[in-house]
Design goal:
Layout lengths: L12 E8 L4 E7 L4 E2 L6 E2 L2 E14 L2 E13 L9 E3 L14 H14 L2 H9 L6 H10 L10 E10 L3 E8 L4 E6 L4 H10 L5 E4 L3 H10 L4 E4 L1 H18 L1 H4 L22 H25 L4 H8 L3 H9 L19 H9 L5 H10 L6 H8 L21 H9 L7 H11 L3 H17 L7 H11 L2 H12 L1 H9 L5 H16 L6 H11 L1
Helix pairs in contact: 1-2, 1-3, 4-5, 6-14, 6-18, 8-9, 9-10, 12-13, 16-17, 17-18
């Protein structure tokens, strides 16, 4: 570990005395150099004209602020051609001209400002014995000269939101080094094109398939090879599959299967509904009314955006309502419980006649249960409800909406459990169109993961001819940016590092409560990398 010396530039200063008090430490120092150099002509001079005391603040000792009292000399310049007659000796490595802080204290304040920001950094600095204001930290951060960066050959570009859905900026990343190189205050092809014009030499541009970055790269770096972002390709394919499953929900929902062990049945109709259940039912009725209104307005010739403004919902929600064959139910995923691994044993003991929750709690606790007694009570509470011999509606064991089903199809097979895998096989057995559609989706996902090579032209031709219309539209969109998609399937470059830096940028932006100016956000983001 590097230990800071007692004095900044210890070979140039000598300590003449130390004064220690309860609130600070005062060091009396003087220069060791025999001569001074004129800042105007760089002529060395030994002619001392006088002295003056310069006060500097230095790094603290054990939480106590340190003040340096420097007995600085004034020299006469011996160069007759120089216009500077008298000058003071300067040690740039100790402190800048006119500064009241040492350089190493400035660097420490700058590191605090980069990591914490203004007011949080000031609070931490005060706890460490370096009092400063938040505005002072930001001034130090803003006046620092930006370090030069090497030329970029492989560039990753993506957008980030200042205010989601309203204003966006652009993040640029050097994929060879894995580091961000710049931020742009807007997301437009003009700003991206101008930046590429100022930074020639870019050979590869990894981007999404949006128009601003595609056109900006084509105009600003016509020699560059374009690589589509594989993450966005997978996300677009999943969205297409979700629209497909949402439209055909009436065909696959009846095949969700019978209830399995450990899945709770619906409470008897005679049982009083909780306030939360009543609220869910009210929300469902309101959503159903909007669903019917959206379909009526669409039949009347209204577009999605106009319907959304009329009903107070997003245009994408309107599109889902219009494309669905029946009302899309909202499925709330079941929350994992601590008693799930012991549900079978508790049910077995319950059927054996053990109905006391405290006894069951002690039994499962001896088997390694780490939860609470209340968790066991909540698990057995539905079993205490009076039996109703009439048929009851059952909760689906595979709690699956159209969005969740789309993720189920595109995720890796080893991440699906046995029940989920059986349901996907059931979907493929609904008909030739289902089998072929799921097969095409899986082929493209495998190509994105570099598991199976796929010829893009053959895949898109098969998708346009045989896949559902949602996957067809996705395939037709690939043809508009064909070369970038081909490069995404074959090139080793990925926009993943850029996506990671977008997440880090969001963290810094939220640390500043989203209120910092762009210049400060840019400095903190680039310097913290």
């Amino acid at each position: 570990m590097r230990v800071a010396p007692l004095l900044p530039q210890a070979d140039a200063l000598r300590c003449d005395g130390v004064e220690v008090s309860e609130d600070r430490i005062l060091l009396h120092v003087s220069s060791c150099a025999a001569t001074g150099r004129c800042p105007n002509c760089d002529h060395a001079s030994r002619r001392v004209n006088g002295w003056y005391a310069r006060t500097l603040t230095d790094l603290p000792w054990h939480g106590r602020p340190v003040t340096i009292r420097w007995r600085s000399r004034k020299f006469r310049c011996g160069n007759p051609a120089c216009s500077q007659r008298i000058f003071t000796e300067r040690l740039p490595a100790v402190a800048a001209s006119g500064s009241r802080r040492t350089q190493r204290l400035d660097e420490t304040f700058r590191a605090l400002a980069v990591a914490c920001g203004g007011d949080p950094g000031a609070r931490l600095a005060s706890r460490l014995g370096m009092p400063i204001s938040g505005d002072g930290l930001l001034r130090i951060l803003r006046r620092h000269r930006e370090r030069e960066r090497p030329p970029v050959r492989v560039l990753g570009v993506d957008d980030f939101a200042f205010r989601k859905g309203l204003t966006y900026g652009t993040i640029l990343c050097d994929l060879e080094r894995g580091r961000p190189i710049d931020l742009l205050p807007e997301r437009s092809k003009e700003s991206f094109r101008d930046w590429l014009g100022r930074h020639p030499g870019v050979e590869v541009v990894s981007r999404d398939r949006g128009e601003p970055f595609a056109q900006g790269a084509a105009e600003g770096a016509p020699q560059a090879c374009h690589v589509a972002d594989r993450w966005y390709l997978l996300a677009n394919l999943r969205d297409a599959a979700a629209r497909w499953f949402g439209r055909t929900a009436a065909q696959w929902r009846p095949h969700l299967g019978p209830p399995t062990s450990g899945v709770r049945c619906e409470v008897a109709a005679s049982r009083r509904e909780s306030p939360a259940e009543q609220l869910r039912q009210a929300n469902r009725q309101q959503r159903r009314a909007r669903y019917e209104q959206a379909r009526e307005l669409h039949r009347a010739g209204w577009d999605y955006r106009r319907i959304g403004r009329r009903l107070g919902i997003h245009a994408n929600t309107v599109r889902k309502f219009v494309e669905a064959d029946e009302f899309p139910e909202r499925v709330v995923p079941r929350r994992a419980r601590a008693t799930d691994p012991f549900a079978g044993y508790l049910r077995q003991r319950w059927e054996a006649g053990v109905r006391i929750a405290s006894v069951l709690f002690e039994e499962v606790k001896r088997q390694g249960f780490q939860g609470s007694y209340d968790a066991v009570c909540d698990c057995v509470a539905p079993w205490r409800a009076p039996r109703d011999e009439s048929p009851r509606p059952l909760r689906r064991p595979l709690r699956c909406s159209a969005d969740q089903l789309s993720w189920l199809v595109v995720q890796r097979p080893d991440r699906r459990n046995r029940e989920q895998e059986q349901f996907v096989e059931t979907l493929a057995g609904l008909g030739p169109s289902w089998d072929r559609g799921i097969e095409l989706v899986r082929q493209f996902v495998a190509a994105l993961r570099r598991e199976v090579p796929v010829d893009l032209d053959e895949w898109t031709a098969a998708a346009v001819a045989e896949a559902p219309r949602e996957v067809q539209r996705f395939a037709q969109g690939l043809l508009r940016d064909r070369q970038a998609v081909v490069n995404a399937l074959t090139s080793r470059w990925s926009n993943g590092p850029t996506e990671g830096h977008v997440k880090r940028l969001k963290l810094i932006k939220r640390q500043m409560y989203g209120r910092a100016r762009f210049d400060l956000l840019r400095i903190r983001f680039l310097e913290s990398a």
